[in-house]
């Protein structure tokens, strides 16, 4: 049965799982957005409107969002997607601009993005059907770096780029350490490699503008251990189960042998047949010496 709980019993397995987390794992929305849906009064549990995120969902409970039944949480899946220029990273855009999720190939589950990329930004975007996982991967406490290839217009001062490693404050907003290096320069255009951990809204563009540089192209090439690689624009590729386990600690399948479960005893092994002893060789110089596998010579 489901019911109301307090923070003290939030992790009591007998009570089930908090509904915001349950909705996030079901791929409906991030946990924060799920809490907003609850506040709007559009989430029901077993026919009753959910009043608080402290509500628990147990196995067999019926959860509806805006009148549509939400299925149980699926196996966690993660995808690499090469976002092209000109798409917004939302499910719906008030301005009617095309979205990432409208352009995804058919047959994929409902997905949410891990972080966002601006309309004109390109490159690696992680997508998952597990909203709770998306939120966890966005946290700066993971220590994951985001690496970008950035084309800028203007005069690049390498000393100013090196200074970014100390952190910088732009218009009252304090940004953490940024590693930026000059890769190539042609006239007033240059390519930089920029690495940061926080990834705040339009952080690179604002910092570069503060240095007198205008960003003309921005491509994310890595997010933590995940790389864009040779994935073409608009393509999506699923991260395999082994990588999910090794990099994220996410188990997508039950082990073949579970802890605490005794294995079925193996049948007794059949005894091996006795080996035939090979004939002993005759002494050297004996005219009747028999080679291995040959028949004795008769007079």
Record keyword descriptors for this entry:
single chain, 299 residues, alpha+beta, Structural Genomics Hypothetical 15.5 Kd Protein In mrcA-pckA Intergenic Region, Chain A, Pseudouridine synthase, nine-stranded mixed β-sheet, four-stranded antiparallel β-sheet, 6 helices, 17 strands, disordered C terminus
What does this structure look like?
InterPro entries: PsdUridine_s_RsuA/RluB/E/F_cat, PsdUridine_synth_cat_dom_sf, PsdUridine_synth_RsuA/RluA, PsdUridine_synth_RsuA/RluB/E/F, PsdUridine_synth_RsuA/RluB_CS, RsuA_PseudoU_synthase, S4_RNA-bd, S4_RNA-bd_sf. Keywords: Isomerase, RNA-binding. It comes from Roseomonas indoligenes. Residues 247-299 are annotated as: Disordered. Its EC number is 5.4.99.-. Mean pLDDT is 82; it is low at 1-11, 253-269 and 283-299. The chain has 299 residues and is of the alpha+beta class. The chain has two domains: 7-69, Roll (Structural Genomics Hypothetical 15.5 Kd Protein In mrcA-pckA Intergenic Region, Chain A), CATH 3.10.290.10; 78-248, 2-Layer Sandwich (Pseudouridine synthase), CATH 3.30.2350.10. It is globular, with a radius of gyration of 31 Å. It has helices spanning 19-25, 31-39, 131-138, 158-163, 203-210, 241-248; strands at 17-18, 43-45, 48-49, 56-57, 63-65, 68-69, 78-83, 112-114, 122-128, 146-153, 168-170, 173-175, 179-186, 189-196, 214-223, 226-227, 236-238. A hairpin with a 2-residue loop joins strand 2 and strand 3 (48-49). The strands form four sheets. Strands 7, 8, 9, 10, 13, 14, 15, 16 and 17 form a nine-stranded mixed beta sheet that branches. A four-stranded antiparallel beta sheet has the order 3-2-5-6, with no helix packed on it. The protein starts with 16 loop residues before the first strand and ends in a 51-residue tail after the last helix. It contains six helices and 17 strands.
């Amino acid at each position: 049965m489901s019911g109301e709980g307090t923070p003290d019993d939030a992790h009591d397995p007998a009570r089930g799982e908090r509904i915001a987390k349950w909705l996030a794992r079901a791929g409906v929305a991030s946990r924060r957005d799920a809490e907003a849906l609850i506040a709007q009064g559009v989430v029901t549990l077993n026919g009753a409107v959910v009043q608080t995120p402290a509500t628990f969902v147990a196995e067999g409970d019926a959860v509806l969002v805006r009148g549509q039944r939400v299925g149980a949480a699926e196996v966690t899946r993660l995808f690499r997607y090469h976002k092209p220029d000109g798409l917004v990273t939302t499910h719906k855009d008030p301005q009617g601009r095309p979205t990432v999720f409208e352009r995804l190939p058919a047959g994929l589950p409902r997905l949410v993005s891990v972080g966002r990329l601006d309309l004109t930004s390109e490159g690696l975007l992680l997508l998952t059907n597990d909203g709770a996982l998306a939120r966890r991967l966005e946290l700066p406490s993971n220590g994951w770096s985001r690496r970008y290839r950035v084309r800028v217009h203007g005069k690049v001062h390498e000393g100013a780029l090196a200074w970014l490693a100390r952190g910088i404050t732009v218009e009252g907003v304090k940004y953490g350490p940024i590693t930026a290096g000059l890769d190539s320069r042609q006239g007033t255009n240059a390519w930089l490699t920029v690495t940061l951990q926080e990834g705040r809204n339009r952080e690179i563009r604002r910092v570069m503008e503060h240095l007198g540089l205008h960003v003309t192209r921005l491509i994310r090439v890595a997010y933590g251990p995940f790389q864009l690689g040779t994935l073409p624009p608009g393509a999506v590729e699923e991260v395999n189960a082994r990588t999910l386990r090794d990099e994220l600690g996410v188990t997508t399948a039950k082990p073949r042998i579970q802890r605490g479960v005794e294995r079925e005893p193996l049948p007794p092994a059949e005894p091996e047949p006795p080996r035939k002893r090979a004939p002993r060789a005759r002494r050297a110089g004996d005219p009747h010496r028999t080679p291995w596998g040959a028949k004795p010579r008769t007079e």
